[in-house]
Amino acid sequence: MSSRVSAALWKQLFQLSAQGGMSLQGQIRQMLVSAILDEQLQQGVPIPSSRELADQLGVARNTVVLAYQQLVDEGYLIARERRGYFVNADMLAGRVARAVARVDTAPAAAAPDWQKRYVVRPSRQRNIVKPSDWQKYEFPFIYGQFDPALFPTADWRECCLKALSVMEIRDWAPDLIARDDDTLIQQIRTRVLPRRGVWAGTDEIVLTNGAQQALYLLADLLMSSRTTVGIEDPGYPDARNIFAMRTPRLIGLPVDGGGLPLDARLSQCDYVYVTPSHQCPTTTTMPLDRREALLRRAERDDFVLIEDDYESENNYSGTPNPALKSLDRSNRVIYIGSLSKSFAPGLRLGYVVAPAELVAELRALRRLMVRHPSAFIQRSFALFLSLGHHDALLRRLAHAYSQRAEALADALVRHMPEVSFVPVTGGASCWVRGPEGLDAGRLAQQAEAHGILIEPGDIFFMNGADQLPLHNHFRLGFSSIRVDRIDAGIAALGNLMRGLMTARAS
């Protein structure tokens, strides 16, 4: 390497460090830190002067001066009077030296045979698959992704900044070990659960990294190879996969227009997983009388209900049903909720409401896995709830989703009259049944090639592609697509579906 880093390389490093939302000063600092830690700058050789680097990058000299000064304060650079700025060699002390390439004539040692060592193969399970670049598609009818236009950026930033005050940091920065943020637990008790008719003590709530971890903890704690679990069919694939990791004894319980029916096979179950508020994926709501009957059956046959209160917070029908847990009088319902699903799924914040003795064991098990969810996120969300931002967000989402649901229903009736669908009364998706013989998987593939994302329905069924290779169900999500794009997207999807059906008939 030459004694000086060339102007062209500085510009390249600066471009690589550029991030949306970061100030020029921050980008310069990031560029220099990366160059130092990656050993792209030689020790003992001065880096460009503030004037020189400012000219090379086309920024104000004062911006570079402030960046240099902060890096001096943090120990990355050393300022030497009349000589300039140099890399502080102490920042690289103690690092393992880069390996030197050498020719090794000794035979390579045998690597472990990992195929023989796996106890389970989770990668082989059937999972919902979504493109990582879904935001680039013109018509993203996928579920579970957020809409940047609806994200309360200012409100969330306010709460994060408040959580970064000196006094707040003293509360959340220490290791909570097995505890949760007391303020968030109180907000869940007093602001979130009462909307669902659920009342719980502080020792009956435990926080999780999303509802998904809640299911995993319960499976780990309560299920073995001898446990029989009843699950809705079609139902939530990740719940099915989590339970299958613990027991082969899964019983698929076909759902109807009222969700999970009172099937005779319930009596064989130790646990029954149910999504009564908005059944996954059909979105049907379990009637009140069936909920009460299900609880009576659980008492009679001695099984426990795991209630995933799926999308309950996105109800815009005006007549929300009480949670199954709110009707529970014998502690037979384990209640799972999510705080972040409709807000920002990437925050991963869920919770379990259960008897205190069960919550104590869940905390102990969680401690072995992750100790606790991010305490900073917990405190920020507690502030988000206490300041009323969460309630305001739910109202905005309900309004936006109801508009999108109406636009989607109208578009399906006009552009795809061959299909039937469950009327949407809440949530952010629509379950569609295509004409007999439609291969929804092939439709999804063709649609993706035309900028349209949909979710084939076979993944939600227990046997899926094994027994239903041409299954004609699919799911349309609308949480991340603008209302003015829905009609055109469904029109294009309808044309593709009719093309497939015509080709099949010929």
From TrEMBL:
The keyword Hydrolase does not apply. InterPro entries: Aminotransferase_I/II_large, HTH_trans_reg/aminotransferase, PyrdxlP-dep_Trfase, PyrdxlP-dep_Trfase_major, Tscrpt_reg_HTH_GntR, WH-like_DNA-bd_sf, WH_DNA-bd_sf. In the C-terminal section; belongs to the class-I pyridoxal-phosphate-dependent aminotransferase family. This is 2-aminoadipate aminotransferase. Residues 22-90 form the HTH gntR-type domain. PROSITE patterns: HTH_GNTR (PS50949). It comes from the Bacteria. Keywords: Aminotransferase, DNA-binding, Pyridoxal phosphate, Transcription, Transcription regulation, Transferase. It holds the Pfam family GntR. One of its GO terms (molecular function) is DNA-binding transcription factor activity. It comes from Pandoraea terrae.
